[in-house]
Amino acid sequence: MQNRELTLDDYLAMLRRRLAAILVPALLAPVAAYFLSYAFTPHFTSQSLILVETQKVPEGYVQPVVTSGIAQRIATMQQQVLSQNRLQPMIDRLGLAKGKSVDDVIDGIRKNFVIEGVAPDLSRNHRTGQSDVPGFYLSFTADSASAAQQVCTELTSMLLAENLKTREQVAQSTTEFLLRQVEQAKRDLDDQDAKLATFKKRYLGQLPGDEDNNIKLLMGMDSQLDANTQALNRAQQDRAYAQSILSQQLAAWKASQAAMNPESLEKQLAELQNQLITLRTRYTDDHPDVLKVQSQIAEVKRKLAEVNAASAQGTSSAEKGSANEPAEIQQLRLQIHQYDGTIAQDTREQQRLQEAIHTFQGRLALSPAVEEQYKQLTRGYETAQKVYNDLMVKKSASEIQTDMERRQQGEQMSLLNPASFPDAPSFPNRLLFGLGGAGAGLVLGLGLGLWLEMRDKALRTEQDVLAALSLPMLVAVPWIDAANGKRGKKTPPAQAAGKPSKLSILEV
């Protein structure tokens, strides 16, 4: 085998020669493996099926509150269910720790509890968080069928309860978190609103929206100031004119009043009396000139009596003169007084308009800086308003989602098949043991046959002789069948029996 290349006929010949060495291990090994399986402690596996039901309310109306994939949630719930504080009550209730330590029992439960999805991929999630997995199997393996069924039932119930609790807790915690965020956002919005109100109150009339109005008001006040200035000038001119007229009339009236003093009146009375005496010497008492002089004397006496009476009452000449001023002079004084009031009012209005114009000019000068501060406050207020509105929408949606979870209208896990009672042990599988023994026996037989063939040094064919001696063949004597006396190329009996032929003549 080491000196030449083997052909298919060579392999078939080896198989025929070593068939017994191959078949014996191949037939004995399965039997031995089957009986060997009874040496192992049998294990029983109980299995339950949980169905994952989709959300009953359309997602277009209510979005699911739990967005994590089902594979992640199942892994989380598995760790929570298999925690020691959750398994301890179950172990005590079922009496699983008889003759064993609790820690060993817990470790055994964790090792023998398996969750397997119905679909091959547990991590494929839709955009909405739903999974392609319609359900999953829960399997538990124990030394007895009843224990496997009991533990599988308990673990399945714990997992379903944990799912309901987890979804409701997530929904409730989300709502509480959003409620705190809404309260904080409301406080921030109130602070921004208070700052904005204080700023508006402080810069009333100087806000960006008031600039055009301020310009219009400023233009109107300029026009009012021009009209007021013109009215003030006219009033001052009219007063000056009335004052000049009053001065003239006062001068004329005072000149006429100069003759009204007692000395003048007495002197005038004496002159008129002398004139009357002279006229009486010429005319009678009925003469017109005498009558005229008599009336003048009576008028002078009356005036003199009035002057004397006024002097007796202590009335000053100035007051007397003022009280006896003519109506024209008094009218002029009244007009001047009215002009003074108009001038004072127009002057105050002019000062007011000038101050208002100065104020509005200052507002317009401060408008860019005020506008910048106002934009910053408005931007902060709008941001706080938007955050508050968004949180209110999310809070309302979360409350609806929480109510949906409480009413169990969201994604649910329901028990489709309860934990089964295993009729046969899951380990050892005697059929698999037998098949494994058959495979091992076949491999062992093939190895044994190969080993025997490698140790065989016999030369069975001409190719073996040529390969072993490396000498050319000179003459070949045909095999003669002694039974029928015919010549041919049949295989010698020795060669057919696997023994070497002795009829080849070789060159020495």
Write the layout of secondary structure elements.
Blueprint: H1 8-17, H2 19-36, E1 44-53, H3 70-81, H4 84-94, H5 102-112, E2 113-117, E3 135-142, H6 145-202, H7 211-257, H8 262-282, H9 288-312, H10 317-323, H11 327-406, E4 412-417, H12 430-455, H13 462-469, E5 473-476, E6 479-480, E7 487-488, H14 493-496, E8 504-506
Antiparallel strand pairs: 1-3, 1-4, 2-3, 5-8, 6-7
Helix pairs in contact: 2-12, 3-6, 6-11, 7-11, 8-9
Description:
- It is a single chain.
- 67% of the residues lie in helices and 8% in strands.
- Mean pLDDT is 77; it is low at 122-131, 315-321 and 486-508.
- It is built from 14 helices and eight strands.
- It has 508 residues and is of the alpha+beta class.
- Strand 6 and strand 7 (487-488) form a beta hairpin.
- It has a four-stranded antiparallel beta sheet with strand order 2-3-1-4. Strands 5-8 form a two-stranded antiparallel ribbon.
- Helix 3 crosses helix 6 (145-202), helix 6 (145-202) packs antiparallel against helix 11 and helix 7 runs antiparallel to helix 11 (327-406).
- Among the domains are: 210-377, Orthogonal Bundle (Helix Hairpins); 458-508, no CATH class.
- The chain is rod-shaped, with a radius of gyration of 68 Å.
- The protein has helices at 8-17, 19-36, 70-81, 84-94, 102-112, 145-202, 211-257, 262-282, 288-312, 317-323, 327-406, 430-455, 462-469, 493-496; strands at 44-53, 113-117, 135-142, 412-417, 473-476, 479-480, 487-488, 504-506.
